[in-house]
Amino acid sequence: MLDQLWTLIQYLFLGIFQGFTEPIPISSSGHLIMVKDLFNIIGQGLTFEVLVNFGSLLAVFIVYRNDLARLIVSGFGFLFQKKRDDATTRDFRFIIYLIIGTIPAGVIGVLYGDAIEGTFGESASMVGITLIVTGIALWVIRNLRGSRGDGDMTIKDALIIGLAQSVALIPGISRSGATVVAAMLLGLKQTTALRFSFLLYVPVSLGTVILKGEAIMNTPSNLYIPYVLAFLGSIVASYFALKWFINVMKNNNLKYFAFYCFIVGALAILFL
C-alpha cells in the first residue's frame, strides 16, 4: 500500500513539475533530469514525457483558445470562402509562418535527435551549463521592446525562430526561452513573440503525440491511475505557469528567470 501511494505521489509530482516548467523559460527537460538525479528517481520513459507534454499542450489550447479559433476560421475563410480582407490574409500568413517555423525542429529532431541525446545524455552537470546559456540569452533580451506585430512577420523570421526551437532539443535549453529570445531579437513585440512561440509548440507537440500515440495506448494497466494523475497535474500546472510567464513578460521582469538559470545552473555544475 505504501509503495502504491509513493508511486502515485511520485507521478503526480513529476507531472506537476514538468507541467510547471514547460511553459516558462527554464527548460522542463533539463529540470526533470536534475530532479531525477537529485532524488534518484527512476525515469518514466518517453511515453510518460509525451503524455505530460500533451497536458501542457492542452493548457496552451486553453490560454490561446481565442487566437486558435480566429486562426482556424481565417484559414478556412481564406482557402475555401475566398475571404481575402486584410485581417484574414494576416492570419493566414501567420499560419504559414507557424508551419515554416515547425520544419527546422522536425527535420533536425528526426535526423540528429539520437545524436543530440547521446552527446548531452542525462548529465545534470551538462544541463547546468546549458541553463547558464539560457540565462545569458534571457539577460540579453530583458530590456528589449519590439515594435513589429503579427502582420509584420516574414518567412525569414519564422525560419530563425524555428531554428531557435530546434536548439532546444538540447536539455537545459528552454524551448519557450529560445523562441521568445529569437523573436525579441528580431524586433517582434512581446505579445507577438509569446503568441508565436506557444502556437509553434502546438504542431510539434501534436506530431509527437500522434507518432507516440500507440505507445500511450499500450500503457500497462497498473500505470493508468498514476499517468492520469500526472496528466491532470501537468494541465493545471502548465496553465498557471503560462499565465504567470505572460504576466512576467508584461511587467518586464524577465531578468528574474535569467537570475534563476544562473543560480540553478551553477548549483548543478557544482553539486550534481
Task: Please identify the structural class as seen in this structure.
Answer: mainly alpha
Helix-residue proportion = over 70%
Question: What is Rg?
Answer: 19 Å
Beta content: under 5%
User: What is the total tally of β strands?
Assistant: 0
Helix and strand string, N-terminal first?
Answer: HHHHHHHHHHH
The chain-level mean pLDDT equals 88
Strand count, sense and barrel status of the largest sheet are:
none
Number of domains in the coordinates? 1
Segments where pLDDT lies below 50 for 5+ residues? none
Overall geometric form: globular
Number of helices: 11
In whole angstroms, the N-to-C terminal distance is 32 Å
Brief overview, please?
This protein has 272 residues and is mainly alpha-helical. The protein has one domain (2-271).
What characteristics describe this protein?
272 residues, 11 helices, 0% strand, globular, mainly alpha
Topology diagram in text:
Layout: H1 2-21, H2 28-39, H3 46-63, H4 65-80, H5 86-120, H6 124-140, H7 155-167, H8 175-185, H9 190-217, H10 224-250, H11 255-271
Helix pairs in contact: 1-2, 1-3, 1-10, 2-6, 3-9, 3-10, 4-5, 5-7, 5-9, 6-11, 7-8, 8-9
Structural notes for this entry:
By secondary structure, the chain is mainly α. The protein has one domain. It is built from 11 helices and no strands. It is globular and about 60 Å long. The chain starts with a helix and ends with a helix. The mean pLDDT is about 90. It comes from Pontibacillus salipaludis. Its main location: membrane. InterPro entries: UppP.
